[in-house]
Write a structure and sequence with these properties.
There is one protein chain. This protein is an alpha+beta fold. It folds into two domains: 3-143, Jelly Rolls, CATH 2.60.120; 145-189. 51% of the residues lie in helices and 23% in strands. It is globular and about 55 Å long. Residues 23-109 form the Cyclic nucleotide-binding domain. This is Crp/Fnr family transcriptional regulator.
Length: 189
């Protein structure tokens, strides 16, 4: 699980072995809810295989706002850190192999990571990249038409187009599945 970090920070190989023991491997089928909107998050996940979406209910409609793939971490950060109800649900889209860590173990691990400047910076970068992703997605609704949002998605995140079902992509783009089909047909021509 920590192979990516082993390559990036080989000087900390012993730490990775110690940290790996805190994570629990699970295999879950597609459409498994890992966290319900309104529940307090007590687990954080790393995806070894599969993909996950984060979504919330808006007046009876699912609104997908982020996707996660292999080697990415996912949790309701606000809920996990503050112990508050999650503003969204986390659900598998494909069958997944995941590693999860309980909040109490993460807090201990975090204290050790923060004591090592290189690891602390890496963790901060991951968090900032997630925030940047949210901001870019939000700004695209203000700056771009649905067609432009779709074309940007094709260009910048082709794995979403290849792996995610159409109705989730439409929700992510803020349009209906019918509108997405029209845009795709217009782009292909």
């Amino acid at each position: 699980m920590f192979q990516l970090y082993n390559k990036q920070f080989p000087q900390f190989n012993q730490l990775w072995d110690k940290y790996a023991m805190l994570y629990h491997r699970i295999e879950v089928p597609a459409k498994t809810i890992l966290l319900n909107e309104g529940d307090v998050s007590k687990k954080a996940y790393i995806i070894e295989q599969g993909c996950i979406r984060a979504w919330f209910n808006n007046k009876g409609k699912d609104v997908t706002f982020q996707f996660f793939f292999e080697n990415e971490a996912v949790s309701s950060i606000e809920s996990f850190r503050r112990g508050t109800p999650s503003l969204y649900s986390i659900e598998t889209i494909e069958s997944c192999v995941l590693y999860w860590i309980h909040k109490k173990d993460w807090l201990n691990l975090q204290n050790e990571i923060y004591a090592i400047p290189e690891l602390r910076e890496q963790l901060i970068d991951i968090t900032l990249n997630r925030q940047l992703n949210y901001m870019q997605h939000f700004m695209s609704f203000i700056k771009h038409t649905p067609k432009e949002r779709y074309l940007n998605l094709v260009k910048e995140k082709p794995q979403i187009i290849k792996r995610i079902p159409q109705h989730y992509i439409a929700s992510y783009l803020g349009i209906t599945s019918v509108s997405l089909s029209r845009i795709r047909n217009a782009v292909v021509k």
